[in-house]
Amino acid sequence: MAGRGNGATGVTIGVIIDLNGWLVRQGYAAAYRKYSLDYVPQEEAARKERLGMWSGRFVMPWLWRRGKRL
Prior knowledge:
By secondary structure, this protein is of the alpha+beta class. 29% of the residues lie in helices and 14% in strands. It has one domain. A hairpin with a 4-residue loop joins strand 1 and strand 2.
């Protein structure tokens, strides 16, 4: 977390980044809809822009574990 002092109080102010959301938005991860729909908008945007893994063909990890291959 990045931070800096806040005047005489010495309180640290930080910025929290949603790393999971960033990874999905860049096309480096997929939204696992089985457990949450939180990252579906980021995935759809990455897919539309053909970022990361969306620039080619791949098998979703949960399907790969079940034996699906290209």
